[in-house]
DNA sequence: TAATGGATTAACCGTTTGGTTAACTTCTGA
DNA sequence: TCAGAAGTTAACCAAACGGTTAATCCATTA
C-alpha cells in the first residue's frame, strides 16, 4: 500500500512540505530575495534534500509561479466567459475575486511582480494551453451597448476597471492604511463592504 | 566658483550619475535583485567609488525608495487637498496621475513592493513630515453627499476606486495585454483614452 | 535476513556579492 | 608651488549562496 496514514501523525509528504514552504518564502521575498536554506528550514529538512526533490532554485520557483498564476487567472476567466446576465456577472466576478484575494493577499503582488519581471515566460505558459479569448464577454458587452442597456463602453475598459478596483486595494493596503488612517479592523470592514459595493459602483457607471 | 560647466561636456556630477544608475537598477530588479557592480557599471565608475559616496547598499536603496515615494505620494495628496470643485478635482487627479504613471511606469510597482516589504519604515517616513490628513477631501465628499449632489458614498471608497483604476492597469500591463490581446500600440491608445474616461466613469457612478 | 533502492544528512566546493584597503590622481587654496 | 583634501582605482577579503558528494538511514521485498 502506498500510503498508510497513521492515526496520530497526518504525515504530509516531504514534497508537499517543500512546496508549501517554498510558496511561503517566495511570496514573501520574491525570487532573488528567497534563500534555499530558509525554504529548507521552514520545511524542516536539509538543504540537500531540497535539491534532491527539485533540481534547482529556478525550477522550484517556476513551479511556484505556475501554481500562483494558475490559481488566479482561470478563476477570473471562467467567470467572465460564463453565460450569466451582464450585471449579475459583474456582481459575481467582483465578489468572488475580492473574496479570494482577501484570503490570499500576497498572491496578486507576487504574480504581478513575476509577470512584469519575466513577461515572455508568462506569455508562453498561458498560450500553451488554450488561448484565453474573452469572446463571450466582449460580445456580451457589445450587445448590451447595441441594445441600449448600457452606455457606449469598450469591454476592455470595463474589465480593467473591475479588476483594478477588486485587486489594487490589497496591493496598496499599507498605503491606504496610512493615508486614510485605517486600522487593521477598519481595513477589513472596508474590504467587506467593497465585496458588494464595487459591483454596484461599476453598474451605476455603465447603465444607460 | 563651485561649478564651471564646460561648453562641450555637460559634466553631470558623479553623485547624480550614481543616483540615476541606482534608480534604474533598483526599479528593474528590486533591492535583493540589484547588484552594486551593475550600478557601478551603469554609472561608469568603480564599485569602490560607489561605497565612497553611499556607504552601503541599504543606505543607497533607502535613498532611492525615499525619492520614489516622494515623487508619487505628494503629487496625489496635494491635488486631493486642493480647493477645486469635486468633479473637477476628480478629473484633474485622474488625468495627472495617469499621465505621470505613463511616463514612469515602473515606479508604482516598485513603491508598492517596497512598502509591502517594509511597512514600518514607510509609516515612519511619512508621519515624520506632516501627517497626510485628507481632511479637505473627506469633508468635501461628505458635503456633496449632504447636499444631495452625489449618492451616499464613503470618501475612502471613492479614493480607492480612483487610485486603483488610475494605477493598476500599468502594473498589470502584461496580463491585460495577454488576456485582451493588446499590442503595445493598442495598450497606449487604451491608456490615452483612460486619461479622461476613468474620471467620467467615476462621476457617472457617484452622481445622484 | 540480506540485498536493493529511495530518502536524508553533514560536510564540502566554487562562485558571487557587498564591502574594504591602500595606493594613485586630480583638484583647490594658501 | 606645494601640501592636503577630495576623487578614483585595482586588488583583495570574508561571508553568503546555490549546488554537489559521499556516506548513512530505513522501508520494502525476494
UniProtKB/TrEMBL annotation, chains A, B:
Q: Which residues bind DNA?
A: 35-54
InterPro entries linked to this entry: Homeodomain-like_sf, HTH-type_TetR-like_transc_reg, HTH_TetR, Tet_transcr_reg_TetR-rel_C_sf
Domain of life (superkingdom): Bacteria
For molecular function, the Gene Ontology terms on record are: DNA binding
Q: Where is the HTH tetR-type domain?
A: 12-72
Q: Which UniProt keywords apply?
A: DNA-binding
Keyword tRNA-binding included in the entry's annotation: no
Protein's UniProt keywords contain DNA-binding: yes
Give the protein name, as stated in the record.
TetR/AcrR family transcriptional regulator
Q: Which organism is it from?
A: Hymenobacter rubripertinctus
* Upper lineage: Bacteria, Pseudomonadati, Bacteroidota, Cytophagia, Cytophagales
Amino acid at each position: 500500500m502506498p500510503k498508510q496514514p497513521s492515526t496520530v501523525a497526518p504525515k504530509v509528504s516531504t514534497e508537499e512540505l517543500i512546496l508549501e514552504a517554498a510558496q511561503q518564502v517566495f511570496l514573501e521575498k520574491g525570487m532573488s530575495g528567497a534563500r534555499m536554506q530558509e525554504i529548507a528550514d521552514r520545511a524542516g529538512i536539509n538543504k540537500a534534500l531540497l535539491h534532491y526533490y527539485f533540481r534547482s532554485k529556478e525550477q522550484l520557483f517556476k513551479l511556484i509561479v505556475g501554481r500562483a498564476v494558475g490559481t488566479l487567472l482561470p478563476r477570473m476567466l471562467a467567470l467572465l466567459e460564463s453565460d450569466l446576465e451582464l450585471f449579475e456577472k459583474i456582481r459575481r466576478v467582483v465578489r468572488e475575486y475580492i473574496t479570494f484575494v482577501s484570503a490570499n493577499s500576497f498572491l496578486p503582488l507576487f504574480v504581478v511582480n513575476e509577470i512584469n519581471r519575466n513577461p515572455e515566460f508568462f506569455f508562453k505558459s498561458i498560450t500553451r494551453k488554450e488561448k484565453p479569448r474573452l469572446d463571450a464577454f466582449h460580445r456580451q458587452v457589445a450587445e448590451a451597448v447595441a441594445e441600449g442597456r448600457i452606455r457606449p463602453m469598450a469591454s476592455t475598459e470595463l474589465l480593467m476597471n473591475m479588476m483594478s478596483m477588486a485587486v489594487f486595494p490589497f496591493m496598496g493596503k499599507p498605503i491606504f492604511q496610512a493615508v486614510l488612517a485605517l486600522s487593521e479592523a477598519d481595513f477589513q470592514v472596508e474590504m467587506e463592504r467593497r465585496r458588494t459595493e464595487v459591483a454596484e459602483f461599476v453598474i451605476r457607471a455603465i447603465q444607460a
